[in-house]
Design a protein that fits this description.
Order of helices and strands: HEHEHEHEHEHEHHEEEHHHH
Strand content: 15-25%
Distance between the termini: 62 Å
Shape: elongated
CATH class of the largest domain: Alpha Beta
Number of strands: 9
CATH topology of the largest domain: Rossmann fold
Structural class: alpha/beta
Number of helices: 12
Largest sheet: 7 strands, mixed
Number of domains: 2
C-alpha cells in the first residue's frame, strides 16, 4: 500500500496508519484471548496489527470499508481473505458473522468515530467480554477517569458501569503515517463479572446523559426534565454535580428516580 493511499484513506476515514511493529505487537498482546474464540479488528488498514493477531490462537476477523485496504489485505494475508468484512462497523449487524458467539474487539480506531465505536460496543456488551484499542489520548483518559476528575463524563460512567477500564500506554505521533497532531492512548476494557445493572438500564443511560449535559449545575437543576417529586429532590444527592458521583452512585440515583412516586 502506497503512502499516497494511506494519506487519501486518512482524509476519507479520519485514519492514521500505525507503522511501528513493536507497538502493533504490544497492542495485540493486550487481550487475554480467554473465554472467546473470535476477535474482530476494526479498521486494519495495511495489516500492521493484523499480522500479530493472526499469530494468536484465535480466529481473527477484520472489518474495513476502504476498498484499497481490502484489496491489499486480500493479496497479502491469504489466510484472512474469507474473514474480511467489507462493511461499515457502525452500520453493520455483526450477528450476521458472529451470531450469538462472544468475540473481542481490537483496533487502531479512527479518531472521528472512536466514541461511536465504544457506544456500539456497549450496546453489544453481552457478546464482547474484552475490548482493546487506540484512541486519541484525551479520549482514552476520559473513558478511564474516575469521579472528581475534570474529564470524567458520559463515556466514563457508561463504560465503567459494565467494564473495568484501564489506560495502558501512550503512543507518540511519530509512529503513524500521516502523524496526528496529538498523542494516542491504548486502553483495555474487561467486562465485569456481574455487568447486569440493578436498575432500569435505559433510564440509567438517560440519567447519566442528561446529568452531564449541564455538568456545572447540581443534579437538582440538570435533571429538571424528569419531573421529580419534591420529596426526592430534597435528597442530598441532588446537591452534587454529576462529575462528583461514582458509577455506583449513578446507579443508586437511577434507582431513586425509578422508585419515585
Amino acid at each position: 500500500m502506497s503512502k499516497d493511499h494511506q494519506v487519501r484513506a486518512k482524509k476519507h476515514l479520519g485514519q492514521h496508519f500505525l507503522t511501528d511493529e513493536n507497538i502493533a505487537e504490544r497492542i495485540a498482546n493486550t487481550l487475554s484471548y480467554n473465554g472467546y474464540d473470535h476477535v474482530l479488528e476494526i479498521g486494519p488498514g495495511m495489516g500492521v496489527l493484523t499480522k500479530y493477531l493472526l499469530k494468536k490462537d484465535i480466529t481473527t476477523h477484520v472489518i474495513e470499508i476502504d476498498t484499497e485496504s481490502v484489496a491489499y489485505l486480500k493479496n497479502n494475508y491469504l489466510n484472512l481473505a474469507n474473514r474480511i468484512i467489507e462493511k461499515d462497523f457502525l452500520k453493520y449487524n455483526l450477528k450476521e458473522v458472529f451470531e450469538d458467539q462472544p468475540f473481542a474487539i481490537i483496533g487502531n480506531f479512527p479518531y472521528n468515530i472512536s466514541s461511536q465505536i465504544l457506544f456500539k460496543t456497549l450496546e453489544m456488551r453481552d457478546q464482547i467480554p474484552e475490548f482493546s484499542g487506540m484512541f486519541q489520548k484525551e479520549v482514552a483518559l476520559r473513558i478511564c477517569s474516575k469521579e472528581g476528575s475534570k474529564v470524567y463524563g458520559i463515556l466514563s460512567v457508561l463504560t465503567q458501569a459494565f467494564y473495568d477500564a484501564q489506560y495502558l500506554f501512550t503512543v507518540p505521533p511519530s509512529v503513524f503515517n500521516p502523524p496526528p497532531k496529538v498523542d494516542s492512548g491504548v486502553l483495555l476494557l474487561k467486562r465485569k463479572d456481574n455487568y447486569q445493572l440493578p436498575c432500569d438500564e435505559k433510564l440509567f443511560f438517560r440519567v447519566v446523559k442528561t446529568g452531564f449535559q449541564q455538568r456545572r449545575k447540581t443534579l437538582r437543576n440538570s435533571l429538571k426534565s424528569f419531573d421529580l417529586s419534591d420529596k426526592l429532590k430534597s435528597n442530598l444527592i441532588f446537591d452534587q454535580r454529576p462529575e462528583q458521583l461514582s458509577v455506583q452512585e449513578f446507579i443508586a440515583l437511577t434507582q431513586l428516580i425509578e422508585n419515585d412516586n
